[in-house]
Amino acid sequence: MNIIVYTIIVALVISFLLGVLLGLFKKIFHVDVDPKVQTVRDALSGANCGGCGFAGCDAFAGAVVKDEAPTDGCVAGGAKCAAEIASILGKAGVEVKPKIAFLACHGTKECAADKAEYTGIKSCAAAQLTMNGTKKCAFGCIGYGDCVNACPFGAASMGADGLPVFDVSLCVGCGKCEKACPKKLIHIVNKDIKGAIARCSCHSDNKPQIRKDCTTGCFKCGMCARKCPEQAIDLASGLPVIDYAKCTSCGECVKSCPDKVLVLFQETVTAGV
C-alpha cells in the first residue's frame, strides 16, 4: 500500500516540476508574433495546397506580412482573398486572373500506341523512371493519374479515354497537378485566354515516327501558321505557340490542322478542359 502512495506522490512531484519547467521555457523562448500574420491567415482559403510556393497557409501568411510574398499569392483564394490581404496590409490591390490546368496532350489510349506491357507500380512517376513512360510517343500522357491524386480540390479525374479531365468549376490553378506530371504536360494558364492552344507536346521532328506513335500527334506540317491571317503562330519550338496579343480567335488554324491539335481555348473551358 505504501508503494502505491509513494508512486502517486513521486508522479505528482514530477508533473509539477515539468509544468514549472515548461512554463519557464515558454517565457524564455517566447517569440512575439505580428498580429497581422493571424489576420492574414484567417483571410486565406485554408486549403494548404502549396500553390503559393510555401509549405502551407501559415508559412505564406508569415511571408506575405514580411513582404516576402505577393498579396495575390493564394491561388485558391482568388481575387477576393488577394483584395482582403491587400486591405489588411494597407497595400494597393492587384488584378488577379483566375487560372486553371490545361493538358497539352490529346493522345488517347486509342490513338497513342503502348511501347510494351507495363507491370510495375501504377504511377506515372514510376513508369517514367523505369521505362520513360508507357507509350511509344516519348512525350505522351502516361495516364496513371498522378495528377488526379495530387489535386487537393477534387478537380481532376481520369477519363474513359485514358487522359485526365479537369473540372473548370473546381480547378483553382494551384499547380499541384503540374508538379506531379513527370512528362510536364500540364500547364497552369489564365482562365480567360481567348485564342488557339495546342493539345500536343511532341517536339520530335521525325514525321513518319510521329504518325506511328500517335495518330493525333502534331505532324509539324506548319499548316496552322500558314493559314493564320494575323501571323500569330510561332513554330520555332516545333510546336505552335500562339501570340495572344495578335490572335483574334478566327479559328482558321483550328480548321486547317489535320490532326486536330489546335482548339480554341475558350471553347475547351466552356466544355470542360
Distance between the termini: 74 Å
Rg of Cα set: 26 Å
Helicity level: 25-40%
Overall outline: elongated
Number of helices: 11
Mean pLDDT: 91
Give the low-pLDDT segments: none
* H and E string: HHHHEHHEEHEEHHEEHEH
The tally of strands reads: 8
Major sheet details: 2 strands, antiparallel
Strand share of the residues? 5-15%
How do the strands of the widest beta sheet line up side by side? 1-4
Structural class designation:
alpha+beta
Plain-language structure description:
It is a single chain. With 273 residues, the chain is an alpha+beta fold. The model has no long low-confidence stretch (mean pLDDT 91). It has a two-stranded antiparallel ribbon. It has a two-stranded antiparallel sheet with strand order 2-3. The chain has eleven helices and eight strands.
Task: Characterize this entry briefly.
By secondary structure, this protein is α+β, with helices and mostly antiparallel strands. It has helices spanning 2-28, 35-43, 57-65, 78-89, 124-131, 146-150, 176-180, 207-213, 223-227, 252-256, 265-271; strands at residues 99-103, 156-158, 164-166, 186-190, 196-198, 233-234, 241-242, 262-264. Helix 2 (35-43) packs across helix 3 (57-65) and helix 2 (35-43) packs antiparallel against helix 4 (78-89).
Descriptors:
elongated, two-stranded antiparallel ribbon, 273 residues
What is the fold's blueprint, element by element?
Elements: H1 2-28, H2 35-43, H3 57-65, H4 78-89, E1 99-103, H5 124-131, H6 146-150, E2 156-158, E3 164-166, H7 176-180, E4 186-190, E5 196-198, H8 207-213, H9 223-227, E6 233-234, E7 241-242, H10 252-256, E8 262-264, H11 265-271
Antiparallel strand pairs: 1-4, 2-3, 5-8, 6-7
Helix pairs in contact: 2-3, 2-4
